[in-house]
Amino acid sequence: MKLLDQITSYAQGLPLALKVLGCSLCDRNADYWTDMLNQLKKFPNEEIQEVLQISFRGLKDNEKDIFLDIACFFRGRGKTFVRKILESCGFTVVSGIENLIDKSLITLTRDNRLEMHDLLQEMGWQIVRKTSKEPGKRSRLWEQKDISHILKWETGAQEVEGIFFNLSGLEEMNFTTKAFSQMTNLRLLEIYRSNLRDTGGKMQCKLHISDDFKFHYDELRYLHWDEYPCESLPSDFESENLVHFCMPRSHLTQLWKGQKVFGHLEFVDVSYSQYLKKTPDFSRATNLEVLVLKGCTNLRKVHPSLGYLSKLILLNMENCINLEHLPSIRWLVSLRTFILSGCSKLEKLQEVPQHMPYLSKLCLDGTAITDFSGWSELGNFQENSGNLDCLSELNSDDSTIRQQHSSSVVLRNHNASPSSAPRRSRFISPHCTLTSLTYLNLSGTSIIHLPWNLERLSMLKRLELTNCRRLQALPVLPSSIECMNASNCTSLELISPQSVFKRFGGFLFGNCFKLRNCHSKMEHDVQSVASHAVPGTWRDTYAIWHPNVAIPFSTVFPGSEIPDWFRHHSQGHEINIEVPPDWYINSNFLGFALSAVMAPQHDSRAWCMYCDLDTHDLNSNSNSHRICSFFGSWTYQLQRTPIESDHVWLAYVPSFFSFSREKWSHIKFSFSSSGGCVVKSCGFCPVYIKGTSDEGDYSSGIAFDEPRRHAAKPSRISYQ
């Protein structure tokens, strides 16, 4: 049976392969099967390959090249990435890929990656191998032994178009100019280590590169070299055709010297190149779209030409900790993502663009920026209405925001003395049209009041306010809010009762001990969420991450008592309820409200609440469900927010979320908390429609605990 599984696995469900192998193995003994399987692993079945090649032979030359590049180099890579590289090679890629998909030679995954059957990849490999017995005369090289051979014996010829060399497992390797001297048509070069993580980032293979090392760049489109060991590139390194340049963790101190022609260069990534001291002259790389300098900890000088890259879409300089100055960036009008997080010595941005219509992410956390007088768009939305409509993320973590004058915003380190802190932070004008902002991070600031018109940010989904220890009140928040973390806001006293939360989400008020109106506010929020909950916005959105876990609307705040509107409560971590036959009426039952009081222990680090729901129906059938308080990045937030005393967890789970519609006779809720917290008490409350309600005020039609025998029609609840 094991051999059969191995043969089936080799065929991967391909009908042709199963048919051919079945004919070969029929009436044979186990030893024959074992021998055949070993041969297949070394040498693919010729009959299968011959039939598969019928489809390949019917392709146009352009499509054959695309197929072979994918089989040898780009299987599993993103379609957009591959398209860009292969188009730069002169291939007609869009129609070519579509034809390959139509002929079932390649497939497209859900996340838009190019895949193919193992046997089809083997066919591609065999086609390349059969072009020559000598590896140095083949168009594509991907096997370690073949590449090692041609580098050792310097047999690479002009037929070589691509090399993808995995250094993992090699102890020593020589790179000489002579070994590459005949490869005049090289267009794809990647040198990497597949076991990078397993080796702790230490180079296992010792590379010997001659001082005069160079290779042919004229036809080069794609260059990726992990941990490039030299301090500089070859002196004549220049390529009009190069599109993609990637040398992460390199030993480079600079890229190229002087002006070099890189007319088609679109992507540069030298992240974590800790010896890099300055950027090159980009004045002849005017098509550059992506520049990644993340983790270049010794970078001190940025060439002024960077500020004139008008097509630049992404600029990532995260954790360039020695960078003190940026040149004028006034011409970076195409920027969508601008990351300066962790540039702790950077104090100023000067001459920024007056119009940045595409900016969607701006990260300035961890910088020393104190002056934004040149950036009027961040300081005065009234004068520049609409210029930042595409801004979807503003991160000013660990900074102090204050209004300096009508056209500037000042950011300072959050350790500023209380006397210098602002009385009010007003950075959104009454005419703000920041309609695309979805993420706002003000964590660690000395802000006292949020802007009164924060509710104008109609697309805002996530609000981070952690460690805003001077924040006293929350104004009316946008109804679009899904997640908010206000933990450790120790001065927070009030949450506007006019804020209406209609969406799935989580709201953290850990260690906010001055909150006064939390119990009544949260009761109102449960009513609001219950009346607006619909399957499409709750269950479907998160099922792909947690198909077996119900994730409710959930909130946490200081307290040691289950809210008084919970009629069913119990000491300890469990509550058992025997329900009457009519408790569940389809037309008016909405869901459950759950609550638990948790207490930290001496070794408490953080927490995450879980609830196991066990049910029995009238026929004694049982079922179980797990309800989790938060998920994904929120779990990480909780790990950073240990609670200091008793806290109340309150959640709402709609009836359509993972629960069957059988009539239950008995329900048991079991609560538990991770991270060293214990559950002291717990409660459960069914939520129903009650009577009729005015249109638009759905929460007035919500009742806790009592079912109605003559329920209102479902149409009285408006799902929005």
Automatic annotation (TrEMBL):
<dbReference type="InterPro" id="IPR058192">
    <property type="entry name" value="WHD_ROQ1-like"/>
</dbReference>
<keyword id="KW-0433">Leucine-rich repeat</keyword>
<keyword id="KW-0677">Repeat</keyword>
<feature type="domain" description="Disease resistance protein Roq1-like winged-helix">
    <location>
        <begin position="61"/>
        <end position="132"/>
    </location>
</feature>
<dbReference type="GO" id="GO:0006952">
    <property type="term" value="P:defense response"/>
</dbReference>
<feature type="domain" description="C-JID">
    <location>
        <begin position="557"/>
        <end position="690"/>
    </location>
</feature>
<dbReference type="InterPro" id="IPR042197">
    <property type="entry name" value="Apaf_helical"/>
</dbReference>
<dbReference type="InterPro" id="IPR027417">
    <property type="entry name" value="P-loop_NTPase"/>
</dbReference>
<protein>
    <submittedName>
        <fullName>Disease resistance-like protein DSC1</fullName>
    </submittedName>
</protein>
<dbReference type="InterPro" id="IPR045344">
    <property type="entry name" value="C-JID"/>
</dbReference>
<dbReference type="InterPro" id="IPR036390">
    <property type="entry name" value="WH_DNA-bd_sf"/>
</dbReference>
<dbReference type="Pfam" id="PF23282">
    <property type="entry name" value="WHD_ROQ1"/>
</dbReference>
<dbReference type="Pfam" id="PF20160">
    <property type="entry name" value="C-JID"/>
</dbReference>
<dbReference type="InterPro" id="IPR032675">
    <property type="entry name" value="LRR_dom_sf"/>
</dbReference>
<dbReference type="InterPro" id="IPR044974">
    <property type="entry name" value="Disease_R_plants"/>
</dbReference>
